[in-house]
Amino acid sequence: MIYLDYQATTPLAPEAREAMLPFLGEQFANPHSPHRPGREAAAAVELARERVAALMPKGGRLAFTSGATEALNWAIKGSNGPIVTLATEHAAVLDSVRAEARNGREVRILPVGSDGLVDLDLARSEIRAGTGLVVAMLVNNEIGVIQPIAQLADIARAAGALFLCDAVQGYGRVPIPANCDMVAISAHKIHGPMGIGALWLRDGVALRTLLHGGGQEKLGRSGTQAPMLCAGFGVAAQVMEERLLDDAAHLDRLWRIATTRLGPEWTINGSFTKRYHGNLNLRCDGVEAARLISQLRELAFSSSSACASGSGRPSHVLKAIGLSDAEARASIRLGFGRYTSEQDIERASDMILEAAERQLMWAV
């Protein structure tokens, strides 16, 4: 099996797995207990916090959460005032802001261009005085485009609003601008374990509590932390930092192979230049992506975000950049990374080309 669905989740790094194993055995203590095993577990959580925070802007605090969905919900529902976000955001953002709208909060959802990028002049007109929160994704999970986060954060700051960055796909790969006020991330997108994420807040930023209880975690989040997951997250972040240049160079090589081998019959969705090279979203007219996925059982790839798969609806991101339903359904997403070999990409590209050619031949 060739795994090309890195946007949905990434393979667990061996270093992260090794860091987690002791907590499945004798190091099982509750990190909030006062005895020695509890203090040792708490120390492991704090070490992990330092490692995860090392890839964040300076001057902030980080709280572990159950994942990025909780972190985004917390940041959105714990803030005040009108919200401005983009039409291509993840469902965790769009569904949360729509829930806030049903509760009477003003929400403005900005369109994007055919390249998947927001128009900054439009953003300036819509992020006006009185806006409470601006939310945007650093690297889009479906098409891989990189939004102008630093400029959007500046616009938000000028209007007196907080800026929340969904950095799930970019954390550890693309620098997070220093002028963000809040950042949401997830461990399993950086070769860490599923079930844990984090919310980073700039010093001085405060939110209403989302989960009530013992208030065990930083910033007032309630719930017993899992030292095993924290340890895996921390080591995964540390490895991302250590391998940043090597991973980026590897991705560039994989990107060149894939785009060259698939050829001009396949059109890249979104900006060609302002994008992360581990996400290749592209389409071939007349091809049905769902059929490709079912036919190529030795490949693991997708046609949209994992959260939306199986809905039967065209991707809201592809629709937002102007694709027709047919074009959206002809689109596939190839996600690759550290553990993808050049041979994997060559073989996968050939398999996709052959399967697409068969589809088009039978369609004639």
For the biggest sheet, the summary is: 7 strands, mixed
The ordered H/E elements are EHHEHEHEHEHEEEHHEEHEHHEH
Spell out the CATH superfamily of the largest domain.
Type I PLP-dependent aspartate aminotransferase-like (Major domain)
Tell me which CATH architecture of the largest domain applies here: 3-Layer(aba) Sandwich
Structural class: alpha/beta
Please, what is the average pLDDT?
A: 95
Q: Based on Cα principal axes, name the global outline.
A: globular
The CATH class of the largest domain = Alpha Beta
Report how far the terminal alpha carbons are from each other: 31 Å
How many domains, as an integer?
A: 2
Instruction: Provide the gyration radius in Å.
Output: 21 Å
Number of helices: 12
- The helix content, as a percent range, equals 25-40%
- Strands ordered across the widest β-sheet: 2-8-7-6-5-3-4
CATH topology of the largest domain: Aspartate Aminotransferase, domain 2
Strand content: 5-15%
How many distinct beta strands?
12
Contiguous low-pLDDT stretches (5 residues minimum) are none
Protein model, in words:
Helices cover 38% and strands 14% of the residues. It is α/β, with parallel strands linked by helices and 364 residues long. It folds into 2 domains: 2-9 and 244-363, Alpha-Beta Complex (Aspartate Aminotransferase, domain 1), CATH 3.90.1150.10; 14-241, Aspartate Aminotransferase, domain 2, CATH 3.40.640. The protein has a 7-stranded mixed beta sheet, sandwiched between helices. The chain has a 3-stranded antiparallel beta sheet with strand order 9-10-12. A two-stranded parallel ribbon has the order 1-11. Helix 4 (91-102) links the parallel strand 3 and strand 4. The longest helix has 22 residues, at 342-363. The model has no long low-confidence stretch (mean pLDDT 95).
